[in-house]
Amino acid sequence: MTTALTDGKPFGRTAVTRRRGIVWFLFLAFAGAWIPWGVAGAAGYTLDNPAVQLLTGAFTPALAAIITRRWITREGFADSGLRLRLRTQWRSYLTAALLPIGILAAALTLAVLLGMWRPEQHDFGSGTLLFLVLAPLIPVVAAPIFFGEEFGWTTYLRDRLLPGRPVATTFATGVIWGVWHWPLPWLGYLGSGGSAADAFIAMLLWLPLSIELEFLIGWLWARSGSVWPPALLHGGSNLVVALGLELFVGNAGPSGASITLLMCAAYLPVVAWIVVTTRLGGPRNANSTAGR
């Protein structure tokens, strides 16, 4: 079992090709999302509407990676991780589907210890029970949507930013990914009623959350050589961990700061384990043979 956060070796890549690909990918990913977000906001739409999210930026990173691979660098898709590899990497899929439940449990435990949530006062009605029953399946259903980001940020950008430095390149990818989200709190993504201070806080907190999540996603990518386990985990983070915390704890404040901080705290031990095992070294990853 691969434990280290190793990085891949995409085929036929030169330093010039790598740099050109990074520049074009970032331009397409940012412009292709920020411009539609701005147009949607100017037209009176808010980004808390799932339909608006899907029609604007949800698939922009994937489209940027496709355009870059096919027409700009002409690297092709041999290292893109499109294959499921389910037979050999089923443990990665299982981890991606179940880990969000463990993260949610850890975050709720922390919320109890901090006095933010009292389970005995929570109404465990049919909606709550249905959420708990469906929690393992939610990432599976949502994976095609979150493929839109992971095919860009993780399977394209991550291995190219700082090759040979898996911890550094994962950290850098997380920072860029977090910055990419910065317009969202100004365009109603967190709901109405927030102030400029709330939006600014949300921008800041998006950085550590994105960095931590990219460590988990990058670990799954290095382990599986497929984009699909990362897409599962991303979907679980948004729709199991974040929504679960809102369901149980409640979203205290328009910035969503309490929810984000609980998520960051719950992810931290797993991220620390990944970084430590990476520093200690480990078996080669699956990416070098993915697609062959």
Automatic annotation (TrEMBL):
A Pfam family the protein falls into: Rce1-like
Domain of life: Bacteria
GO terms for biological process, alphabetical: CAAX-box protein maturation; proteolysis
Alphabetical keyword list: Hydrolase, Membrane, Metalloprotease, Protease, Transmembrane, Transmembrane helix
This protein's record includes keyword Signal: no
Stretches that traverse the bilayer: 21-45, 51-72, 93-117, 129-148, 160-180, 200-222, 231-250, 256-276
GO molecular function, one term: endopeptidase activity
Residue ranges of every copy of the CAAX prenyl protease 2/Lysostaphin resistance protein A-like domain listed in the record: 135-240
Keyword Calcium: no
InterPro entries tied to this protein: MmRce1-like, Rce1/LyrA-like_dom
PANTHER family xrefs: PROTEASE, PROTEASE-RELATED
Name by which UniProt lists this protein: CPBP family intramembrane metalloprotease
Source organism of the structure: Nocardia flavorosea
